[in-house]
């Protein structure tokens, strides 16, 4: 294979798997596509409503993006489309624009997808996938859980049939509390029944099917996954048959049939600048969510996904969503798991799902007229509550207070200030605490573990020491934020046993970097110790650090030596003293 | 000494040195005070003009702050008052307020000093002195040099006698270039002559005095330091005698005699919120500059200064400056060095200087009427150019590209975007590069140095290895920003020799922290290696890291063992293999 073909394959992973595509793949992919299509119809409508968009926009956002991911994506099971968190973030981004008409609102959502897609492609081209690692696991976990709670709360209004305008968790709860008396009974009946059915479907349906209908476990759990479809069919029928809209039950109403013409969304250019920051945040969150799902599924089949190529693939998906009347999309957890479990072998399953959804958009939308919004809200609530995992709080608390602070800040601020501030604060808190910790490093006074060449903390191990030799192991890279502190700490320690100490050895096994500020501090330490007639030595300096020290004048000024190992330092200096004595 | 007295002494260092004050101290302090007073009169006038304030405000800012520092300060030689960089920052902070009257402008400068003082005292009370360590040495050096160039450029208009309104280095140079033809010849003559004299005084005067007048080296260099006073007297006399204002030479003019009434500066409260951010920045920069000077001088006499008490002292100085009609102050380099060289023994020298300056404010100001502004500008130019040290660029480039990036960003942005953006960018660049570096850590494959218990990089040293045992030394704390990368890197390395490797040992001597995200990655590595029938071991895990691992379930899942030393790991596993073979 020439280098050029290889690069082409890297950019179009489809060339890799399409070559060996066979009948076995086709069967698996078609089955998975059929199941995912059925599951996605209510889900995509529901998420569009969550984003504040007309229901059909959810369908549009589920078709071309799937095809784009089929061409560019590296995961064999990921299903791209509207997801809960990104839909919520879309609503948050569009709310402050104050758009009056639905057309404008839809166009703005399209622009958001376009900007997000362009940003993702640019990140991919620059191989900046690693940037997403700034989101720590606790921050992601906290953010997803808090978003789940926020989304569930925001859907309660549809279950109760009351208007709620708040955007934060406390605002929403207070409004619901105040207006509880105005609950629409028929809406609540539909909503509560759907919720009850969906919760049961998730837990009990599969078990009941296996026990009573004698089907396989696999079939039963797939049937349980498409529970929302039964709820949609059942409640739509009931609403039509009992004429529930007359009792105040809100329904989806007329959904246009067909597919919008392809083209760029039209929007007042002055609004674009306001959408850039939200688009970047949506891109990063969407990317992290998608890559986590893809990696989890790939690990099960020992496949690998390419983080930078995934940026390109998600970027292409968002751009195609923008061109086809959709809104921001990413790889979703639930849909990908269903796709995987139902036997998807290659990304072609996604393309087949797209065909199924296109058919739905062209032919099935009239059937959705009597679909109650409460049903869709119940679907969302059940889906997002499964994302909520508050045990991360206890887990982080037990393991490390810094991790707890990050997850707590993320959750508290997401619930009270919104998703954008929440996630940004989580990242900021994580970084600040990291710098804070490295600025206050652990320093251990060490001695020799008897009978070994190993040196450990004198307070934790039984070790041999020499009163004339003070050995300090510095447990951090030396850099500007801790250089001065280290200087004070070492000199203060020497002053405590000023009469005995003849040598100070800095054991640098954990010093991965010495920057220019720290070099100045080392020079100062060397000079101050020289004034006290104490010699400064270094031991176990790593290769890259030593290379850099050699480029400075520090080693010329150093009063003592640089030892390869702490063992050599300790025994070399003990010897020197005996001779001197 | 009771604990209470000790705490009192910590808060009022004056109690410490005043107890043992003797005639020797008095002589030294009085001599130093006399010299510093003479030097400070022109300097404080000049810096006030640099800040855009009437000249007398510089005198006011030099009196009470010195007294406050005498009471609270821990440095024995630091002289507090107006300094170049803080004066420039004051001008930058006040310019956007658009104040029309001089009275309002002076009041706003006072408020800036008050806010800065309150912030410093709060930082001191919270023992937050370490926060200033976020300013790395290269950032400070770059900032001081760039500020020096900026200040020198800003003073050229006074030397040429042309109006210049730009605030950035390129703006100023362009305006001067365009208006060069409008230069006032008499002003240029005064300015250029003063510049020439001051540069000569700095370099040649001391040498000439020693050679021709047979004075001591010490006297000669002190005389050279007060060169500006001769320039002030000479040019003032000439301007009066030749009636130069008629030829367009700008003069200081009427300076009110006396001292303003003590009290809070009056200002529209709506302006206060705009001054908070600049006040914080001025506080931090001023503190860093002052503490560097104090520490340099203290080291020469083996004294120590207390960083947190210095915050209190500088805060008190700024508050007293605000109460007495002054503007933000800090410990200055030039004045402190002169004070030190002239023999100041205790902070009392500062109090004596304050008395001298009070006399100047009360009696000498009428003599300043004919003082040309060009003379003061020349004084500033010579003073600030001595701060400019462009070798830091080469020095940082040679040592580390990250340090170079920080110093370059600081200098370039200070010159082109102003001091506030410049220093903030320097800090941001330093932090981002630190995170960037730690996110991409060095990982060394290590083997045993023959005849020792020491393990080093196989690419740098002749070492013993075993094909069944892969030992990787991870040269960084494991945390969210590098966890995923580390996971990929370790697994990719194992895949390269998948058939041979039976054991992977992670040597953790440089791992100072494992956060929750990294713990998840370690779990994943353990699981993936287990799938490949490879055992994962850890060695040389530090005490604090081990404590934390014990609080998680990781050690229960770990397929291999945790060894105290890498030597034990290597020989233990080699033995295990022999048995297994």
UniProtKB/TrEMBL annotation, chains A, B:
Topology within the bilayer = Multi-pass membrane protein
Gene designation per UniProt: sulP
What CDD domains does this protein's entry cite? STAS_SulP_like_sulfate_transporter
Identify this protein by name: Sulfate permease
* NCBIfam families recorded: sulP
Keyword Membrane in record? yes
Q: Mind giving the lineage of the organism this protein is from?
A: Bacteria, Pseudomonadati, Pseudomonadota, Alphaproteobacteria, Rhodobacterales
Database matches in SUPFAM superfamilies: SpoIIaa-like
Q: Where is the STAS domain?
A: 459-573
